[in-house]
Specification:
The protein has about 130 residues and is an alpha+beta fold. The protein has one domain: Nuclear Transport Factor 2, Chain: A, CATH 3.10.450. The protein is about 20% helix and about 45% strand. Helix 1 runs antiparallel to helix 2. It contains three helices and six strands. The protein has a six-stranded mixed β-sheet with strand order 2-1-6-5-4-3.
């Protein structure tokens, strides 16, 4: 098994694209935790219950940034669903040896962006 944090991280995303549950199970540590705007430090079992089903619709990832800092890999990607929808997220993946011990997800936006270039979406109450 690879121990380079970037190689381990890429293998995790590849498992999603390939729908390879056995591969991702071997990459995710038993004491793994996952955090996103919707999930607050959930455990491994909850992660697989909530997140793994998303693999069914994922077609691929285009990596914008894969930057290693010690045991963490900062990943920015554009993901694409089978229906053609694209989205951009940034994640911080912590790798301990050959396995991922945690992931923090920071949701990005849909591509194309919903706001016109140079403008914003006003969500203030009227």
């Amino acid at each position: 098994m690879p121990t380079d944090p970037i190689v381990v991280t890429r293998a995790c995303y590849d498992a999603y694209v390939k729908k390879d549950r056995a591969s991702i199970e071997s990459l995710v540590a038993q004491d793994f935790h996952f955090t996103s705007p919707l999930d607050n430090h959930v455990d491994r079992a909850t992660y697989f219950e909530r997140c793994w089903p998303n693999s069914e619709n994922l077609a691929d990832f285009l990596f914008i940034h894969l930057v290693q800092a010690d045991d963490r890999v900062f990943v920015t990607y554009v993901g694409r669903d089978h229906d053609g929808h694209q989205f951009q997220n940034t994640e911080i993946v912590t790798v301990q040896g050959e396995q991922i011990s945690s992931v923090e997800v920071y949701f990005g936006w849909s591509i194309p962006h919903k706001a016109p270039y140079g403008q914003f979406i006003d969500e203030s109450p009227n």
